[in-house]
Amino acid sequence: MDFNNIEKLVLLCKSGDESSKEAIAAEFTPYIINLSKKCYVSFYDFEDIKNECYFTLFKCIKLYDTRKHRFVAYATNALRNSVNLLIRNSLNKRPLDGTQTISFDSSIDELSVIDDMNLEDFICNKLIVTSLHSQIKKLSLEEQELIDYVYFKGCTFRKYADLKNISYYRVIGMKDRILDKLKASTSKKTSVSRNLLN
Fold it and tell me: Its domain of life (predicted)?
């Protein structure tokens, strides 16, 4: 980075020049990408962390005292502190609103269209969904996190493996064990519910 050039760009940006804002963002992009790749924050993916960094960078431009002539040091410290704060907050909040109390999307309830099934099937499906919710809550935190990340947030198993820094095959093994647990518990509920209806 050319520190003097960045100081000039910050001055231009503070006077309302949008192109200089883009130029500053471009200068800091390699640093932001590197910083975002190195950290894991619960329920944040790489793009989320990167966006938080850009938000912090633009806030730094707004708050920077141009008489100090140390914008690069000021901004890099602020970016590191911002990411560290995200990590700390995710760790502090985890017991209260992390994977222990994941609120799964209600769209799981919309598994079938009522018109295409009889009342018995509809009731059974409702019981299965209710059972599935309760069985998911009985899984370990790591298992709940995997389900949330892949099935509810639509991310890939490969991305989860990279994020957690574990092997892809270990993640697939976890997925198979989780599905076996859920299938076993929901199939029991299905047979019980059908017996009750008969």
Answer: Bacteria
pLDDT on residue 160: 85
Task: Name 101's Cβ contacts closer than 8 Å, sequence gap at least 6.
Answer: none
67 and 14 Cβ atoms separated by less than 8 Å: no
Q: Tally Cβ neighbours within 10 Å of residue 144.
A: 20
Q: What is the mean pLDDT of each run of 10 residues along the chain (198 residues)?
A: 86 87 90 85 80 90 87 90 81 51 44 46 58 74 82 80 85 84 64 44
pLDDT at 128: 58
CA separation, residue 124 to residues 132, 162, 184 (Å): 12, 38, 15
Look up the CATH number of the domain holding residue 32: 1.10.1740
Q: Report the Cα 85 to chain-centroid distance in Å.
A: 16
Last residue of a domain, one of 97, 132, 166: 97
Q: Residue by residue, what is the 3-state secondary structure of 170-182?
A: HHHHHHHHHHHHH
Instruction: Indicate whether 111 and 132 sit together in one domain.
Output: yes
C-beta separation of 170 from 146 below 8 A: no
